[in-house]
Amino acid sequence: MTQNTENPDRMLKWGLGGALFAALCCFTPLLVFVVAGVGLSALTGWLDYALFPLLFFCLAVVAQALWLRAGRVGPNPKLWATAIAAALSILIIWIEFRFALRITVGAFVAVGVYALLITKMKSKGATQ
Q1: What Pfam family is a match for this entry (predicted)?
Q2: pTM listed for this prediction
């Protein structure tokens, strides 16, 4: 028996959920209160070093799920989305979070544009 682990709806839900969780924890004090509440407030200075890469890699999962839902139209985004997520994570840490909000909004917009592009490619392929 083989099990198909590439369920696009499940990947999309988990990717969006992870991205929204990471964005919520990055830009609000939600996680700081939780971490301080359990007595680990010394870790709050290091949270962004984990949350921003989590955010970008969750967006890469969203791109992969969108590609799978569209019926594998165009090139597989797994490699380039992961490379971009790694590059954005390194960039944001290297510039010490100065432009974190702008880079994050840009990443969300890029995934949205990709979703529109992949939908357009799918509908164009269906009409031919």
Answers
A1: Transport_MerF
A2: 0.83
